[in-house]
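Hello everyone,

My group is preparing for a crystallization screen and wants a predicted model to guide construct design. The compound we'll soak is pyridoxal-5'-phosphate. Before spending weeks at the bench, it would help to have a computed complex in hand. I've included the protein sequence and the ligand's SMILES below. Output in structure-token form would be ideal because that's what our pipeline reads.
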Amino acid sequence: MGTTTDHEEAGAARPRPPRDVLGRYRETTPASRELWERAGGLFPQGVSGQAKFFAPYPVFVDHARGATVTDVDGRRYVDLLMGAGPLLLGHGHPAVLAAVHAQLDRMVNPMMPNRASLEFAERLRGHMPHLERIRFANTGSEATRSAVRVARAATGRTLIAKFEGNFHGSDDAFLVSTHSTEPAGTPERPEPVLDYAGLPPRLLDEVIVLPYNDAAATVEIIAAHADRLAAVIMEPVAFSSGGGVPATRRFARAVREITRRHGIVLIFDEVLCGLRLGLGGAPGYLGVVPDLVAIGKALGAGLPLSAFGGRADLMEATLGAGAGDRKIFQSGTFTENPLSIAAGHASLTVLETEDALERADAAGEALRTGLREVFARHGVQAAITGVGSIVQMHTGIAEVQDRRAVLAGDRALTGAVMLGGVARGVLWPPVHPAVTSSEHRRSHVDRVLDAVDRTLTDLQGDLL
Ligand SMILES: Cc1ncc(COP(=O)(O)O)c(C=O)c1O
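Reply:
Good plan to model first. Here are the tokens for the complex, ready for your pipeline.
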């Protein structure tokens, strides 16, 4: 069992840490260190959520605006984490704030249907016609979990297939071959690995693992299990553990064809990439329409909001009034809570009427281009991946198309470059991919490039 995660490993894997980078980080973040030490007496590892930790200790954030966050030492960072994806319009967008404030005065959460959520669903379907039926939830994990449930109930099968390195949230079945740093099997025939303790070993028989971006091998594996597979779930852009790598259109088409042929439900997990790839979501980008999708993150512009939906026949058969013995459970105290829906409405209006997405994409593109130049100037091999507003760096490797390539890179060096960036005012925590927002300008990108450039200079003679 490979239980070491990206977040823990970065900056800690080398026996001798990069002295200059670590020293500078400690020097610049004393208040964060103090709070983190205090937090250790309450929160295991000093954090409420694994992804918030990076070695030697995380930055504690005090406030945020636009493309920046300010820490408890009063240092302002260019934010490339952006809440791990939701803040496509930046922190504190005035339209989102106004809508949330107005909704706060009106009603918080009645746990009953309300007009605003219906109208938001109608607006979403206007952009994503494949959402014939939809249900709102709070988190991405709830959305992916519910989509899988629909698939299982509708097909009467239990097996699911996921791609090695694709992350779909915190449910048991998704913690198979996602974060593990020790993949099993061959690249073409990956075998399932439990990423953590506390997971039932039966998952190894219930989850089939597929090789991302390898159409021929994926089709063969799916065909071999076809009559037992309820669903294939995939990230159109493999994000947090997959390296910020988009699926190729040819690969997505092959997955669509083989799943359709065998009546297997194809689920796109667009929780991260949903609105970032355009208002039509991943189907618009890849030219492939799945049976179900899960969306989240940017949907609520920073407030908790997710959704799943797709084919009316599947959704009605398992959630509709006449579902009978195929009925699944999907509910939650905070689902379609009006605050999140209000934020979603406001954000969608901005995306519809302004060039917000184009600005986020332009910053992403400038970052990718600039990073390639900086690494080349220092003679450090690096693959810069991503699409639109999604960016990731991988040192020690020329190309990345899947999780195994991510693991083959020099992740300790990548983590050190990112930590050095944090010490120089860029919140790009090791080793999560970066995302940009509509509020990132050329000046922010230049600050990031300068921080990476200086960090690479710091690291000369130590790590390089
Ligand atoms: C692709 C993808 N799916 C699902 C999730 C889970 O979403 P949440 O953290 O809201 O449960 C994430 C979160 O990072 C994600 O990136």
